[in-house]
Design brief:
Layout (H helix, E strand, L loop, with lengths): L9 H7 L3 H11 L2 H5 L6 H8 L3 H13 L3 E3 L5 E3 L1 H6 L9 H4 L2 H9 L2 H7 L9 H14 L1 H17 L6 E6 L5 H9 L3 E7 L4 H10 L6 E5 L13 E4 L3 H19 L6 E4 L6
Parallel strand pairs: 3-4, 3-6, 4-5, 6-7
Antiparallel strand pairs: 1-2
Helix pairs in contact: 2-5, 4-5, 11-12
Length: about 280
């Protein structure tokens, strides 16, 4: 005879408290807990002196992080980083993913709080694909999500190089944000030049990021609405950074048609939905 496992509410309760981990992580990132511990194990008191946060708050957050296995704690009360937090949650390291978490309490989770109404009405609470509503959000958001897309962008770059993109490459980076996808493509070929299209308020962020990678001289920039500006023609590859899911069916179809017309004849490289969350 086989005995089936009892049904329990464990998963339901886990999900009921599912909002807690990102908020705990955000609090630790905003108060530099991981950055301070990158210098070596420390007590709560030592972390308090270096961060200026309250000891009571640090006790709660840092012990919660031990339970979540983002921190370790020894018998002497010394806290230290784990391999995971050391790699991805220290702001000075190239793999830092904590920037995304910094948006949890003020920009991301508050939108989800309207889900009941959205399900009832079928209408979104806000539309970040509208310039007046979305520009401020994306100015702050695109840089922080750069690490999420960069490894995949590098893989794409290697794939295109391995499949014959050895000559001049003209990249059309639509809804570019930080420019993560075209940056990787430009790094993969010294002959690559990039045309960026995004809102006027976002393009300064793209300029700054491409400058950090030493690629600014290979970039040109077009500011405006994707369906209004002239993309030019003869591009080798076009990337659309996760823009389609927020544009709706009709605008997405129009955008894909316009993008295809901007490619050089015979070029197969139309890569929708492969970049930042737009």
């Amino acid at each position: 005879m086989t005995t089936s496992a009892p049904v329990t509410p464990e998963r339901i309760m886990q999900f009921a408290w599912g909002y807690v981990p990102p908020l705990v992580l955000e609090a630790a990132i905003r108060h530099r807990v991981f950055d301070v511990l990158d210098g070596g194990p420390k007590t709560i008191t030592q972390v308090q002196k270096e961060t200026g946060a309250s000891e009571r708050g640090l006790i709660a957050v840092m012990n919660a992080l031990v339970g979540m296995e983002f921190l370790a704690k020894d018998k002497q009360g010394l806290f230290s980083l784990t391999p995971e937090s050391s790699t991805f949650l220290v702001s000075t390291k190239p793999g830092f993913h904590g920037g995304f978490l910094r948006h949890a309490s003020e920009q991301l989770i508050p939108k989800w709080l309207h889900l009941n109404k959205i399900v009832e009405t079928g209408r979104p609470e806000s539309a970040v694909n509208l310039e007046e509503a979305g520009s401020d959000f994306f100015q702050r958001f695109v840089v922080d999500i750069f690490p999420l897309s960069y490894p995949a962008a590098q893989t794409l770059s290697r794939h295109l190089s391995a499949n014959g993109a050895a000559g001049p490459v003209r990249v059309l980076d639509l809804a570019a944000g930080s420019g993560v996808w075209s940056i990787a493509l430009a790094q993969g070929s010294e002959q690559a030049t990039v045309t960026v299209v995004d809102w006027p308020e976002v393009i300064p962020v793209t300029r700054k990021t491409t400058g950090k990678f030493g690629l600014a001289d290979r970039y040109s920039f077009i500011a405006g609405d994707l369906l209004q500006v002239d993309f030019g023609s003869g591009h080798t590859v076009a990337t659309l950074g996760h823009i389609l899911h927020s544009e709706g069916r009709d605008r997405s179809r129009e955008l894909l048609k316009k993008t295809f017309q901007a490619l050089a004849p015979g070029e197969p490289s139309l890569l929708p939905n492969s970049g930042e969350c737009r």
